[in-house]
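Fig. S4 source data, part A: sequence.
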Amino acid sequence: MNTTFQLSVRDKLAVIMLDRGRSNAINHQMVKELTDCIQTLELDNAVGGLIITGKPGFFSSGVDLIEAYEYDVEQSRALWTDFLALQRKLVSFKKPMVTAISGHSPAGGCVLAICSDYRVMAEGSFIIGLNEIPVGIIVPDSIFHLYSFWLGQHKAYQYLMEGKLLKVNEAFDAGLIDEICPAESLLTIAERKIRTYMQLNPTTWSQSKLNLRNELISKLNTDQEGVLNRMLDQWWAPDVRKGLQMLIQNLKTKTPTA
Protein backbone atom coordinates (compact mmCIF):
# COMPACT_ATOMS: atom_id res chain seq x y z
CA MET A 1 0.00 0.00 0.00
CA ASN A 2 1.31 3.43 -0.99
CA THR A 3 1.43 5.93 1.87
CA THR A 4 2.95 8.93 0.08
CA PHE A 5 0.81 9.22 -3.06
CA GLN A 6 -2.49 8.16 -4.59
CA LEU A 7 -2.62 6.06 -7.75
CA SER A 8 -5.56 5.77 -10.13
CA VAL A 9 -5.88 4.16 -13.57
CA ARG A 10 -8.60 4.95 -16.11
CA ASP A 11 -8.72 4.09 -19.81
CA LYS A 12 -5.06 3.01 -19.78
CA LEU A 13 -3.94 6.29 -18.19
CA ALA A 14 -2.31 6.13 -14.75
CA VAL A 15 -2.31 9.20 -12.50
CA ILE A 16 0.02 9.52 -9.52
CA MET A 17 -0.97 12.32 -7.14
CA LEU A 18 1.73 13.04 -4.59
CA ASP A 19 0.14 13.10 -1.17
CA ARG A 20 2.52 13.59 1.74
CA GLY A 21 1.69 16.47 4.03
CA ARG A 22 0.82 19.94 2.81
CA SER A 23 3.87 20.38 0.59
CA ASN A 24 4.55 16.80 -0.58
CA ALA A 25 8.08 16.89 0.82
CA ILE A 26 10.10 13.91 -0.43
CA ASN A 27 11.36 11.46 2.18
CA HIS A 28 13.02 8.08 1.68
CA GLN A 29 9.69 6.28 1.93
CA MET A 30 8.25 8.34 -0.93
CA VAL A 31 11.34 7.67 -3.06
CA LYS A 32 11.04 3.91 -2.54
CA GLU A 33 7.30 3.83 -3.14
CA LEU A 34 7.54 5.92 -6.31
CA THR A 35 10.36 3.76 -7.67
CA ASP A 36 8.39 0.56 -7.12
CA CYS A 37 5.26 2.10 -8.64
CA ILE A 38 7.03 3.42 -11.75
CA GLN A 39 8.61 0.03 -12.36
CA THR A 40 5.23 -1.71 -12.01
CA LEU A 41 3.48 0.75 -14.34
CA GLU A 42 6.17 0.37 -16.99
CA LEU A 43 5.64 -3.39 -17.07
CA ASP A 44 1.83 -3.21 -16.99
CA ASN A 45 0.41 -3.63 -20.48
CA ALA A 46 -2.90 -2.19 -19.27
CA VAL A 47 -1.18 1.18 -18.73
CA GLY A 48 -0.30 3.31 -21.75
CA GLY A 49 0.73 6.58 -20.12
CA LEU A 50 1.37 8.35 -16.82
CA ILE A 51 0.56 11.75 -15.33
CA ILE A 52 2.32 12.83 -12.13
CA THR A 53 0.76 15.69 -10.20
CA GLY A 54 0.52 17.16 -6.71
CA LYS A 55 -1.99 19.03 -4.60
CA PRO A 56 -3.17 22.63 -5.08
CA GLY A 57 -0.33 24.96 -4.19
CA PHE A 58 2.43 22.37 -4.15
CA PHE A 59 3.70 19.82 -6.63
CA SER A 60 6.53 19.03 -4.22
CA SER A 61 8.70 21.23 -2.04
CA GLY A 62 11.66 18.90 -2.62
CA VAL A 63 13.52 16.64 -0.23
CA ASP A 64 12.12 16.75 3.30
CA LEU A 65 15.07 18.49 4.93
CA ILE A 66 13.47 18.30 8.38
CA GLU A 67 13.38 14.50 8.23
CA ALA A 68 16.56 14.04 6.20
CA TYR A 69 18.56 16.12 8.69
CA GLU A 70 17.85 13.49 11.34
CA TYR A 71 18.99 10.55 9.18
CA ASP A 72 22.19 8.83 10.25
CA VAL A 73 25.07 8.21 7.83
CA GLU A 74 23.64 4.99 6.40
CA GLN A 75 20.14 6.44 6.05
CA SER A 76 21.52 9.54 4.31
CA ARG A 77 23.45 7.43 1.81
CA ALA A 78 20.37 5.30 1.16
CA LEU A 79 18.18 8.38 0.57
CA TRP A 80 20.47 10.02 -1.98
CA THR A 81 21.39 6.73 -3.68
CA ASP A 82 17.75 5.84 -4.13
CA PHE A 83 16.74 9.37 -5.18
CA LEU A 84 19.29 9.32 -8.01
CA ALA A 85 18.04 5.83 -8.96
CA LEU A 86 14.48 7.18 -9.09
CA GLN A 87 15.65 9.96 -11.39
CA ARG A 88 17.16 7.36 -13.73
CA LYS A 89 13.99 5.27 -13.62
CA LEU A 90 11.78 8.25 -14.50
CA VAL A 91 14.04 9.49 -17.29
CA SER A 92 14.13 6.05 -18.93
CA PHE A 93 10.37 5.38 -18.46
CA LYS A 94 9.45 4.17 -21.92
CA LYS A 95 5.80 5.22 -21.93
CA PRO A 96 4.44 8.76 -22.30
CA MET A 97 4.71 10.78 -19.08
CA VAL A 98 3.35 14.26 -18.45
CA THR A 99 3.83 16.30 -15.29
CA ALA A 100 0.89 18.41 -14.11
CA ILE A 101 2.72 20.85 -11.85
CA SER A 102 0.10 22.01 -9.38
CA GLY A 103 2.17 24.59 -7.51
CA HIS A 104 5.61 25.15 -6.01
CA SER A 105 8.24 22.75 -7.35
CA PRO A 106 11.74 23.64 -6.12
CA ALA A 107 14.76 21.34 -5.73
CA GLY A 108 13.80 17.65 -5.70
CA GLY A 109 10.28 18.55 -6.81
CA CYS A 110 11.73 20.14 -9.93
CA VAL A 111 13.86 17.04 -10.57
CA LEU A 112 10.76 14.83 -10.52
CA ALA A 113 8.90 17.23 -12.81
CA ILE A 114 11.56 17.53 -15.52
CA CYS A 115 11.96 13.79 -16.02
CA SER A 116 8.70 13.82 -18.02
CA ASP A 117 8.04 14.34 -21.72
CA TYR A 118 5.85 17.41 -21.25
CA ARG A 119 5.13 19.77 -18.36
CA VAL A 120 1.97 21.76 -17.73
CA MET A 121 2.10 24.19 -14.79
CA ALA A 122 -0.74 25.93 -12.98
CA GLU A 123 -0.98 29.70 -13.09
CA GLY A 124 -0.10 31.45 -9.87
CA SER A 125 2.70 32.90 -7.79
CA PHE A 126 4.62 29.63 -7.79
CA ILE A 127 8.31 28.85 -8.25
CA ILE A 128 10.23 26.01 -9.87
CA GLY A 129 13.96 25.37 -10.18
CA LEU A 130 16.99 23.88 -8.51
CA ASN A 131 18.29 25.69 -5.43
CA GLU A 132 20.52 22.96 -3.99
CA ILE A 133 23.73 25.01 -3.88
CA PRO A 134 22.39 27.79 -1.60
CA VAL A 135 21.00 25.05 0.67
CA GLY A 136 24.48 23.48 0.89
CA ILE A 137 23.90 20.39 -1.25
CA ILE A 138 26.45 19.57 -3.95
CA VAL A 139 24.76 19.19 -7.33
CA PRO A 140 25.57 15.82 -8.94
CA ASP A 141 26.41 15.87 -12.63
CA SER A 142 23.35 13.73 -13.38
CA ILE A 143 21.13 16.61 -12.24
CA PHE A 144 23.06 19.01 -14.48
CA HIS A 145 22.67 16.67 -17.47
CA LEU A 146 18.91 16.48 -16.92
CA TYR A 147 18.54 20.24 -16.39
CA SER A 148 20.61 21.09 -19.45
CA PHE A 149 18.61 18.59 -21.56
CA TRP A 150 15.77 21.12 -21.38
CA LEU A 151 17.49 24.45 -20.76
CA GLY A 152 20.77 24.04 -22.63
CA GLN A 153 24.11 23.94 -20.85
CA HIS A 154 24.58 27.71 -20.57
CA LYS A 155 21.32 28.41 -18.75
CA ALA A 156 21.49 25.22 -16.71
CA TYR A 157 24.98 26.07 -15.48
CA GLN A 158 24.09 29.64 -14.54
CA TYR A 159 20.79 28.73 -12.90
CA LEU A 160 22.35 25.91 -10.88
CA MET A 161 25.29 27.99 -9.68
CA GLU A 162 22.91 30.76 -8.60
CA GLY A 163 20.32 28.38 -7.16
CA LYS A 164 17.81 30.29 -9.30
CA LEU A 165 14.13 29.69 -8.69
CA LEU A 166 11.91 30.72 -11.59
CA LYS A 167 8.40 32.14 -11.57
CA VAL A 168 5.87 30.36 -13.78
CA ASN A 169 6.24 32.73 -16.73
CA GLU A 170 10.04 32.66 -16.42
CA ALA A 171 10.02 28.87 -16.44
CA PHE A 172 7.92 28.89 -19.61
CA ASP A 173 10.19 31.39 -21.35
CA ALA A 174 13.27 29.34 -20.38
CA GLY A 175 11.76 26.10 -21.71
CA LEU A 176 11.60 24.44 -18.31
CA ILE A 177 7.83 24.03 -18.66
CA ASP A 178 5.82 23.69 -21.85
CA GLU A 179 2.41 25.12 -21.03
CA ILE A 180 0.65 27.30 -18.45
CA CYS A 181 -3.02 26.92 -17.63
CA PRO A 182 -5.56 27.82 -14.93
CA ALA A 183 -5.23 25.56 -11.90
CA GLU A 184 -8.76 24.20 -12.33
CA SER A 185 -7.89 23.01 -15.87
CA LEU A 186 -4.52 21.46 -15.02
CA LEU A 187 -5.41 17.77 -15.16
CA THR A 188 -7.72 18.26 -18.15
CA ILE A 189 -4.94 19.90 -20.16
CA ALA A 190 -2.38 17.31 -19.04
CA GLU A 191 -4.67 14.45 -20.00
CA ARG A 192 -5.44 16.00 -23.37
CA LYS A 193 -1.71 16.21 -24.11
CA ILE A 194 -0.77 12.73 -22.97
CA ARG A 195 -3.60 11.10 -24.90
CA THR A 196 -2.21 12.61 -28.11
CA TYR A 197 0.95 10.63 -27.36
CA MET A 198 -1.00 7.52 -26.40
CA GLN A 199 -2.85 7.52 -29.75
CA LEU A 200 0.42 6.95 -31.61
CA ASN A 201 1.96 3.53 -32.20
CA PRO A 202 3.37 2.63 -28.77
CA THR A 203 6.41 0.76 -30.03
CA THR A 204 7.38 3.52 -32.44
CA TRP A 205 6.80 6.23 -29.83
CA SER A 206 8.65 4.46 -27.01
CA GLN A 207 11.68 3.47 -29.05
CA SER A 208 11.93 6.98 -30.51
CA LYS A 209 11.78 8.44 -26.99
CA LEU A 210 14.57 6.17 -25.81
CA ASN A 211 16.63 6.94 -28.92
CA LEU A 212 16.29 10.69 -28.39
CA ARG A 213 17.20 10.31 -24.71
CA ASN A 214 19.98 7.79 -25.29
CA GLU A 215 22.85 10.17 -24.49
CA LEU A 216 21.05 11.53 -21.41
CA ILE A 217 20.24 8.03 -20.14
CA SER A 218 23.84 6.93 -20.68
CA LYS A 219 25.14 9.89 -18.65
CA LEU A 220 22.70 9.18 -15.84
CA ASN A 221 23.74 5.52 -15.77
CA THR A 222 27.42 6.25 -15.14
CA ASP A 223 28.87 5.28 -11.77
CA GLN A 224 27.74 7.86 -9.20
CA GLU A 225 29.74 6.51 -6.25
CA GLY A 226 32.40 9.23 -6.29
CA VAL A 227 29.82 12.00 -6.71
CA LEU A 228 27.72 10.54 -3.93
CA ASN A 229 30.69 10.35 -1.58
CA ARG A 230 31.45 14.03 -2.13
CA MET A 231 27.80 14.96 -1.65
CA LEU A 232 27.64 13.08 1.63
CA ASP A 233 30.94 14.50 2.90
CA GLN A 234 29.57 18.00 2.35
CA TRP A 235 26.15 17.06 3.78
CA TRP A 236 27.89 16.24 7.08
CA ALA A 237 30.27 19.23 7.04
CA PRO A 238 29.78 21.37 10.20
CA ASP A 239 29.08 24.62 8.33
CA VAL A 240 26.49 22.93 6.12
CA ARG A 241 24.81 21.31 9.14
CA LYS A 242 24.65 24.72 10.81
CA GLY A 243 23.10 26.25 7.71
CA LEU A 244 20.59 23.42 7.47
CA GLN A 245 19.62 23.94 11.11
CA MET A 246 18.81 27.58 10.40
CA LEU A 247 16.87 26.67 7.27
CA ILE A 248 14.91 24.00 9.12
CA GLN A 249 13.95 26.49 11.81
CA ASN A 250 12.55 28.73 9.08
CA LEU A 251 10.73 25.78 7.49
CA LYS A 252 9.08 24.99 10.79
CA THR A 253 7.75 28.52 11.19
CA LYS A 254 6.61 29.33 7.66
CA THR A 255 5.65 27.73 4.35
CA PRO A 256 8.52 25.55 3.09
CA THR A 257 9.95 26.39 -0.33
CA ALA A 258 13.14 24.32 -0.49
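Fig. S4 source data, part B ends here. The mean pLDDT is 94.
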